[in-house]
């Protein structure tokens, strides 16, 4: 039912694309459970291209897969030397930046995708971040947006991996997206673009549900919904542990 | 073994946390300090968000102080009355500290404030302690008598609201202890420390309390102030990570007991020199971070105060 609804939505929302070729998608998992021992996850994204007519001649089919975590505003601060020490001075609010963003492509991005298409569909990392509201009075506002990309790339949260989507016979494709251990929860949007001659000919979108489960879920909810009880519980645990250790060692020493 | 911390939202090695807790615990047991001033910077270093590190460390100090104060209660070296007066100041200070902390967080200057606090206080306390203990060492070598007791008889005794503290054998105004408690409370909330390293010298030199009741009394006060701080952070910032706290305190309380045994076997003067050196090293490291150009000039934070 839901699948049909999504299919219908995709069908309704993309009438602009003359979709002779459409994506049929599979995911190794459509939910990621963050448990206490969560150590990152790898999601296999695979699919096929459905078409009514034979493979069109001309440039070959290329595939781009993006996975984006939930977006939120990010305050970027820059340090400057003041009175001999380094302190935060200028700051720019980047309107929206995904907490996680991975791009996998079947070829070098600039040779399989037009810049205008990138601009329209926000495919590359730089385009996925929106900073229209960046204050113009600050020198080099673009540097701040670049800093978001650089810092998150270093943390393994943003990545672009070209040539990691395998395409067989212009029909079957597969790739794997690695998700690091430091994930924030939310709905992760997975998008698949088919391009031909650097133009997008089909788009498909689905969500991957990333959720804390079990103890993680319980503690997180409790800390948000019953902060007083959560705080008291933390204190009781602390006092019990302190008392326990002190008693245990006293008994050990007396024996 | 990696473990995902539900509030900090990072994944860290559980044994690393146990080890850190144990190491800092040994030091705190040896020197009779809470160890928060070492643990909080170490947590920053392994990638725990500063706000979570400060709040969680307050919770961990509750555990180690409680473990310590029980031993002092058995030896009857806790001045409950003095502790309560200090506590009144401490609770006010903690509330004030959390307000300041949240305000500076909204300005993006909280890291600077925390680091500056560390540099200033560790530098002053470490330096004083180093000079003092070197002097004591030299005296001990010469074979001189016990170090002269310093009791200030000046302005502190001229203040009103006098109170008798029987366990400490003091009859002084309540204003200085309340102020000492207040300062320590502010520091506890901002720096994520118990503040023992400030309070112990203040109690000896400023209030003139006998050394044997100082540690127990400061631990008694620290339990409540850090407990209160934990509650404030838990309810206003949601930054107490109980999983992180448990891992740290399991290592910490075990380490503290081992440290106490080691500490009892070492001469007091040498211990003090070592502690002073340790404090100065941490201070120097933090000061360098402020003075040397960082490799990454930009930092990311969330919007507004939260």
From TrEMBL, chain A:
It holds the Pfam family Alph_Pro_TM. Keywords: Membrane, Signal, Transmembrane, Transmembrane helix. Residues 1-18 form the signal peptide. InterPro entries: CHP02186-rel_TM. The keyword Signal applies. It comes from the Bacteria. The chain crosses the membrane at residues 228-252. This is Putative transmembrane protein (Alph_Pro_TM). It comes from Ruegeria denitrificans.
Automatic annotation (TrEMBL), chain B:
One of its GO terms (cellular component) is plasma membrane. The chain crosses the membrane at residues 12-39, 85-104, 110-131, 170-193, 213-235, 242-264. Keywords: Cell membrane, Membrane, Transmembrane, Transmembrane helix. It is found in: Cell membrane; Membrane. InterPro entries: TM_pro_TauE-like, TSUP/Inactive_protease-like. It is a multi-pass membrane protein. Its main location: membrane. It comes from the Bacteria. Belongs to the 4-toluene sulfonate uptake permease (TSUP) (TC 2.A.102) family. This is Probable membrane transporter protein. It comes from Ruegeria denitrificans.
